[in-house]
Structures are given as structure tokens and as C-alpha cells.
Amino acid sequence: MKLQLIIPFSFLLSYVSAHTIFMKLQSGGTLYNTSYAIRTPTYDGPINDVTTEYVACNGGANPTTPSSNIINVVAGSTVNAIWRHTLDSTPANDATYVLDPSHLGPVMAYMKKVTDATTDVGYGTGWFKISEQGLNVATQKWATTDLINNAGVQPITIPSCIANGQYLLRAELIALHSAGGSQGAQLYMECAQINVSGGTGTATPSTVSFPGAYGQSDPGILINIYQTLTTYTIPGPTPFVCGAAQSTAKSSSTSASASTAKPTTSSTLSTSTVTKTSSGAVATGTGIAAIYAQCGGQGWTGATACASGSKCVVGSVYYSQCLPS
User: Fold this and answer.
1) Separation CA 63–CA 185 (nearest Å)
2) Which of 10, 108, 163, 275 is disulfide-compatible with 132, CB 3.0–4.6 A?
């Protein structure tokens, strides 16, 4: 008997069209413009081959644009990577302005110490993971779902114990909706160029290489997610933690009691007014909530009015956020 695989047309549409780009970074209360100090592509496609050099900072079929800018970051602070379906997607013009909800998978962040963040090629050794979130097996909820619910904001805490200097910051998500076959997993990543200050400078994280950190048949890369999963192994090494013993071993599988990092809301975002400057950065003031900042929710005591060009959108009873209007 001949078996037929029937795939919903809506799934096919999401497969071909709903990609994503890490296109803005917020640091120290400043939300920088699209592509400022980030090597962004104009096309939002994925990397499917984990053995290619483009798995480090994107490129290849998705050519990236160099940037001569560097963003200052304080060690121990939390920066926010902003993800969008395309470089010009907004809630007003794109129903899936962050990522199609069918694109389920883990969300991660890596850093690499470099001499010059504007010229380093990205690929090769030196990468260490600083955060990850995968599947909560108790709820069967993926990190990408939390990212969408958080309006595309990925909070990333910079380790306080690393050396000062220039780094590449690699924000990444992996969409597993087609990961049941070879090279079916879709990897999305971009690299921001940052300069870290205020660190203790005593830590030397264990590092991995891109390509090399992932294998095409890794259980977190080659997987059928259309079943109830009792475990999920996030690709790559365990995240670096100041003061902890270091290892480049694969991350342990998730469990119902300790599956992934607790989702961090973007409440750490600045509650400042933002205005564009000629340098391409965004200046800040005080008084009202910035675009992408929290503006409400149960127990919220901060600003509830949003900066010009944005409005306060209710995400849940606990969280509202200023989003572009």
C-alpha cells in the first residue's frame, strides 16, 4: 500500500515565508537603529547546513552587510536582542512580525572575544555560550513561543567576570518544524559587534568552534517535534557561568523540573524616551516608557505612557509592552 504524506497548505506557506532576523540591540537604555553594529542580511532565510562557515554569523545565501559600528556594553548588564520577520516588519504591517508560530525551537546566545569586532570573520574557534532556553517538557512550550510572546525581545545577560574588550555577540534561534529530515532544522543567527567594559577580567571560558559546535545528527538538530517530548537536548555546549566549573560538553537534556531557563520578560528594558540621532544610535531621556519597554501589567509600578510612535499593547495580565504603532 502506498502511503501519502498530507501537509496542510498553511504549513507550507509558513515553511517558505516566515523567517526572522536579529536586527536591533538595546544596551544601557539605548535602543540602536536597525542593523546598527549588527551584520544583518537583507534576506531573512535560514542556514540549514551546520558544517558551513555561515553558521557562525550568517551569510552565504543570505549575504550580510558589514558594519563599522560597535555598541558599548557593561559586563553584568542585560542587553536585548530584537528579532523581526524582516528588517522592516512591524505589528502594523506583518501579522507574524517576529516569527511564524509554527517555527518552534530553542533560543541561545554566544560570545567570542576578538581583537577587532568590525573585521573579525566570526567563524572558527573562540565561541562560548552565555544563555539558552529550549523546551519546557511540562507544558510542551518552546523558547521561540516565549520569544514571540515577548514581542521578539531576547534578554541576554553579559557575564560579569569576563575580560574587557571587543566581542562578537551571536544571538541564535533554531526552528525545528522541519527538523525530522537531514538539514531540515532552520538556524537563524546574526552577530552584533560590542565592546565590554566593567568586567573583572578573571574568567577564561571554555570555547567551541563554529562550524564544529553542532552536528547534523545531533539530537537537538535532527528531531521530530510532532509528538509529546519527554526530553530535549539543546544543541551546543553548556552556558558559561561565572564561578562554575567550565565544560564544552553538550547541554543536558531538559526535564519537567529543570527544563530550560525561566523565560525572562523584557522588564529590564529602559523606561526612557527614545529619539533618533544622526549617528544612527538612539538617544534616551526620562518620563515615559521607551519603544519595546514594559508599560503595564499586574504589579507594574513604572511608566505607563509610551514614547511617540508606539502604543502600550497588553500581552498578558502580567505584562504590557510599548510596541511601534
Assistant:
1) 20
2) 108
Among residues 103, 90, 84, which one has the least CA distance to residue 40?
84
Q: What pTM, to 2 d.p., does this model score? A: 0.76
Any idea what the Cα angle at residue 191 is, between residues 188 and 196, rounded to 5°? 140
- HSE of 107, CA atoms in CB hemisphere, 13 A: 31
Q: Which long-range contacts (CB under 8 A, 24 or more apart) does 299-304 make?
A: 302/271, 303/271
In Å, what is the CA distance from 264 to each residue of 22, 27, 80, 127, 261?
Answer: 18, 16, 11, 23, 8
Between the CA of residue 12 and those of 18, 173, 177, 179, 260, what are the distances in Å? 10, 20, 11, 14, 29
User: Residue 261: exposed, middle, or buried by beta-carbon count in 10 A (0-12, 13-18, 19+)?
Assistant: middle
Architecture of domain 10-264: Distorted Sandwich (2.70)
SS3 content of the chain, % helix, strand, coil (to 5): 5, 30, 60
Q: Is the Cα torsion angle 242, 244, 250, 252 positive or negative in sign?
A: negative
Strands 71-74 and 186-197: parallel
Q: Average pLDDT across each block of 10 residues of the chain; the chain has 325 residues. List them in order.
A: 37 54 96 98 96 98 97 98 96 93 98 98 98 97 98 98 98 97 96 95 93 97 96 98 75 38 36 34 54 67 84 65 73
List the grid coordinates of 92: 502594523
Task: Count H helices and E strands in the chain, helices first.
Answer: 2, 17
> In the structure grid, which three cell numbers stand for residue 186, read together?
532552520
CA atoms 66, 70, 76, 79: torsion sign: negative
Residue 270: the pLDDT is 35
